[in-house]
Amino acid sequence: MSQKEKLLTLSTQEFVEYLKNNNINRFYFVYDKKNKKVVSSHKLLNPIADFINKDKRDFNFHEGIFFQISKKYDTLQSAFIHRTNRGQAAGGVRYWSYNSVEDFIRDGLRLSKGMTHKNALAGLWWGGGKGVMAHNPIYDKINSEIRSSIYKEYGEFITSLNGCYVTAEDVGTNVIDMVNIFSRTRFTTCIPFNLGGSGNPSIPTARGVVAGMKAALKYLSGETLKGKTIAVQGTGNVGSPLIKYLFEEKVKKIIACDIFESNIEKLKAELSDKNLEVNLVEKNDMSILSAECDILSPCATGAILNPDTIPKIKAKIICGAANNQLEYPVRDDIDLYKRGIIYVPDFLTNRMGIVNCANEQYGYVNEDPFIERHLQQTWKHSVYQTTMQVLKESKKSGNPTGKVAVNLADRLSKENHPLFGHRGQQIIDSLVANNWHEHNS
Ligand code: NAD
Predict the structure, then answer these.
(1) 174 lies in the same domain as 232
(2) Does 92 sit in the ligand 1 pocket, CB within 6 Å?
(3) 417 belongs to a structural domain
(4) Whether residue 162 is found in the same domain as residue 101
């Protein structure tokens, strides 16, 4: 096995041991624009830089990827900075288990690129980034003392990056973890209400999905939600308020499902006077996706749109909150397009999570115009207008909606911040020039 394959196939904990044995505590990979390639802070890690350079699937000229091993509990911590033309790289930190170093790196590359697209499409003056932390299986994932230490060290790590990455909550991270991060860095959003944060974003996220549905219906038939039948997979934080908003729009019927009985019972009790059919299902039961309905709204987990499910879909529109609904973005996007199904890309319609917390530092106004404009129909970057633009361009160009949305997001993400220009890149350059990787005593 070559050195490259060896490093990439190591488990994240074996990799941590390897780094410690070589006295590496912090390291980075940055894109060297002059030489047009990714370079590493350490020669020893060049095989990983080579792997990133050759990768066509997830690498997309990411500006910088920074890592550290936490001093306590040997946790691999990272910040993936994709593109910062529009502003600091913003996106949550994921705390997850990975099978290999390659899986860890691929997830960070993919997720940070996704944040660039989501933020740019929403018209936010933020770049795209993502934090990734690998759970060290030796230590208890839910022990509060261990978590507090890991997240505080993560906060210090973010501080050391001088603001080119601003973190937030993501899968595996909770609001207490955010408080611990916030105790060590100002470069975070999604802090709790009592510390000046914006609170739970699920209600605005549900409203964003409704806005996407309205645009898709208007585009398809000039109609409204009134009298329509909607199928909703998942009745959690977003699915439940979504169902309530849809009844306010006078839909005829909602068919929904969840894997937790308590969610279902609560919803049934709250909406007993509505035409709501809500079923308890097994985790792998995807029958809701083939329900007779006008709109299908995935609000549970990702990768549910794939060659198994797509041929059975009866809805003409798919519009939901779940992240990464397409199992393989290119393949499944084309498949839906060929079948004449309007797919409203998830990163367009579920933007309100990040929109809600992105600008916490600017304070709050009742019915905040900077939030509300995303949900109204007039602003050019609103969910409604962006959905319309994507659907029209898709028809004109003959390209599927996911591709059109990514192209539009890519264009927008290359616009420089009106005041600060491409400052994130300048910060990365200065970290490298100052040997960032050698400072962590
Ligand atoms: P949640 O965990 O509160 O709700 C998801 C619900 O889906 C749960 O009730 C769960 O039991 C159910 N579920 C899981 N697997 C299922 C299955 N196979 N069939 C039916 N139900 C199933 O999460 P949420 O906050 O409501 O988010 C839903 C989705 O939207 C997630 O993919 C999330 O990443 C995404 N999202 C959420 C927000 C937000 O503001 N909360 C923002 C952007 C994206």
Answers:
(1) no
(2) no
(3) no
(4) yes
- Active-site choice (130, 152, 228, 253): 130
Whichever domain contains 104, its CATH number is 3.40.50.10860
Out of 299, 318, 344, mutate this one to test ligand 1's pocket (max ligand atoms within 8 Å of CB): namely 299
Q: Are residues 244 and 329 in the same domain?
A: yes
107-166 pLDDT, tens digit per residue, is 999 999 999 999 999 999 999 999 999 999 999 999 999 999 999 999 999 999 999 999
Indicate the pLDDT class of residue 2, thresholds 50, 70 and 90.
Answer: low
Domain of 384, CATH number, reads: 3.40.50.720
pLDDT surpassing 70 at residue 102: yes
Read off the tokens for 247.
């009844």
**212 is in which domain, residue-wise?**
202-351+374-399
Q: Judge if the beta carbon of residue 356 lies within 6 A of ligand 1.
A: no
Closest approach atom of ligand 1 to CA 346: 44
Nearest CA to ligand 1 atom 30: 322
Q: Which residues pair with 128 in a beta bridge?
A: 83, 90
Residue 130 covered by a domain: yes
∠ Cα 213 214 220 (to 5°) = 85
Residue linked to tokens 């033309």: 85
Q: Specify whether 140 is located in the same domain as 206.
A: no
Q: With 0.85 as the threshold, say if the pTM is over it.
A: yes
For a ligand 1 pocket test, name from 171, 173, 205, 277 the mutation site with the most ligand atoms within 8 angstroms of its C-beta. Answer: 205
| Per-residue confidence band for 224, with pLDDT thresholds at 50, 70 and 90 | very high
- Residue 53 counted as domain residue: yes
**403 given a catalytic annotation:** no
Name the domain count of the chain.
2
Q: Same domain, yes or no, for 47 and 192?
A: yes
**37 and 135 housed in the same domain:** yes
CA 237 to centroid of ligand 1, rounded, Å: 7
The verdict on 12 and 151 lying in the same domain is yes
> pLDDT digits over 63-89, tens only?
999 999 999 999 999 999 999 999 999
Confirm or reject: Cβ of 396 under 6 Å from ligand 1.
Answer: no
| Ligand 1 center to 322 CA (angstroms) | 6
Whose alpha carbon is nearest atom 19 of ligand 1?
A: 258
User: In terms of domains, do 89 and 237 share one?
Assistant: no
A 10 A CB-CB count for 267 gives 22
Residue 39 lies in a domain: yes
Exposure b/e, 164-191, CB count within 10 A at least 16 = b: bbbbbbbebbeeebbbbbbebbebbbbb
Residues forming a β-bridge with 255 = 231, 277
Nearest atom in ligand 1 to the alpha carbon of residue 300 is: 7
Helix (H) or strand (E) run with residue 27 in it? strand 26-32
Per-state percent for the chain, helix, strand, coil, to nearest 5 = 45, 15, 40
